[in-house]
Specification:
The complex is a heterodimer. By secondary structure, chain A is mainly α. Chain A is 72% helix and 0% strand. Chain B has a five-stranded mixed β-barrel with strand order 1-2-3-5-4. The chains are: A mainly alpha, B alpha+beta.
Chain lengths: 188, 232
């Protein structure tokens, strides 16, 4: 399958021949694995299971894909739902995201706020971890999508199935909470 | 390489589990049902608004004194709570169904609620303007079990002859001084129209439905100071 083909073209082909679906899997395997891990799924085996379920569910529901939104948003939405189902099934809460990604997240959020200037210092990994853990998951996920997955507000709205205004509110509140948490830890 | 291995595994799973994409019509049907439920709930919301308007406009708010109540108590007793509850439920249904349509999530809950109430009100006002409000209320009275018991309407007000409130159907005129009347429970009354009244006279004819304010003079005897047509 030509890697230059659009997602829509690959979907049309996959609806005729399941083997063509491999192109979609190959295209989104890495970004979705990363996203599922960033949602707090830490074990490689668990990520693989969730990812497999995501791709199989997406295949079964290919005809439900709304051409009005990006295919990646639709696929991320399924990955989000499957990850949440996984957490419910194993009765566990999302784990913290990886250390490097925590630092990256704070760095990127810092670029868009006055967190870095405010503190005028480098944050310790442990501080960042505790600050991120103190933030409710409902704020963490939009922050991950915005600053690590680098999705637009519209894409996040389509992934999380919420109005753009709500996405903006959650991101702003999340940034404020992170800033407060880092400030408090810096002070202590 | 890892991607390729994983994709081969997915394709293999699709083959082994004999998975096929669900047909498009199923999703179209689901979306169609959700839109139909949204539209249906809005129409029912319009019915609710029209009936609320009818009950409020048709109600006799000035007879509270005869019922030994204050105006406030009369208002509290008379509001159409059943319809308010139905309207709230329908707005919730509109919000829920719309939220689950393909792109319904893009709109805020507040906006959807405001639009659904607005849509129901617009439809309700159109139904009132077209004169369907009374038909709807009467339809529900006749066809919906318990509706009459759960709704406080003028039927519940004009059934207290001992308090001066009587209603029913005119049977026969008595030489211009009064008429005989069958109330809603089937009791026959001789109604005498009071001469010392400032009330604007109403043209009465046999078969007409009327409501009377006056005084019970004895068993089956009523003096009417005010005669009003029953309404729609």
């Amino acid at each position: 399958m030509d890697s230059e083909l659009t997602d829509q073209a690959v979907i049309r082909a996959a609806l005729q021949d399941p083997k063509q679906y491999a192109a979609i899997v190959e295209r989104y395997h890495a970004p979705l694995s990363r996203y599922i891990m960033r949602l707090g799924c830490r074990s490689t085996d668990d990520v693989k299971d969730v990812l497999q379920e995501t791709f199989l569910k997406a295949y079964i529901n290919l005809n439900d894909y709304d051409q009005g939104l990006k295919f990646s948003s639709w696929l991320y939405r399924i990955a989000h739902n499957e990850t949440m189902s996984f957490f419910r099934k194993v009765k566990s809460n999302p784990a913290a995201i990886g250390l490097e990604e925590q630092m990256l997240l704070v760095e990127r959020i810092g670029d868009s706020t006055d967190i870095a200037a405010d503190a005028d210092r480098k944050f310790e990994a442990e501080e960042v971890r505790k600050a991120l853990e103190s933030i409710d998951f409902k704020y963490r996920e939009p922050l991950v999508l915005k600053f690590l997955e680098e999705k637009s507000y519209e894409e996040i709205s389509d992934i999380l199935k919420m109005p753009v205004g709500t996405v903006a509110t959650l991101i702003n509140r999340g940034k404020q909470k992170l800033k407060t948490a880092l400030g408090n830890r810096g002070a202590s | 390489m890892a991607d390729e291995k994983f994709s081969n595994n997915i394709i293999q799973q699709i083959g082994e589990q004999k998975l096929v994409p669900r047909p498009r019509w199923r999703f179209l049907l689901k979306n169609g049902v959700l839109w139909s439920l949204t539209a249906g709930s809005t129409v029912l919301g319009g019915f609710a608004v029209a009936t609320i308007c009818f009950i409020i406009v048709d109600h006799d708010w000035d007879v509270f004194e005869y019922l030994d109540r204050s105006l406030f108590e009369h208002i509290i007793a008379s509001l159409p709570y059943l319809w308010f509850a139905a309207l709230a439920l329908l707005v919730f249904a509109i919000r829920y169904n719309f939220r689950h349509t393909k792109r319904g999530y893009r709109y805020s809950a507040g906006m959807v609620v405001v639009i659904s109430i607005g849509g129901s009100m617009l439809l309700g006002v159109l139904l009132v303007a077209a004169g369907f409000d009374a038909h709807l209320h009467n339809f529900f009275l006749k066809q919906v079990p318990l509706y009459e018991q759960l709704t406080y309407t003028k039927d519940d007000v004009w059934i207290y002859p001992e308090k001066g409130l009587l209603s029913g159907r005119v049977l026969m005129l008595n030489n211009g001084f009064g008429f005989s009347l069958s109330d809603w429970r089937g009791r026959i009354w001789n109604v005498r129209i009071a001469t010392d009244t400032d009330d604007k006279p109403v043209q009465i004819s046999p078969g007409m439905r009327v409501k009377l304010i006056g005084k019970m003079e004895g068993p089956g005897m009523f003096e009417a100071k005010i005669v009003r047509p029953w309404g729609r």
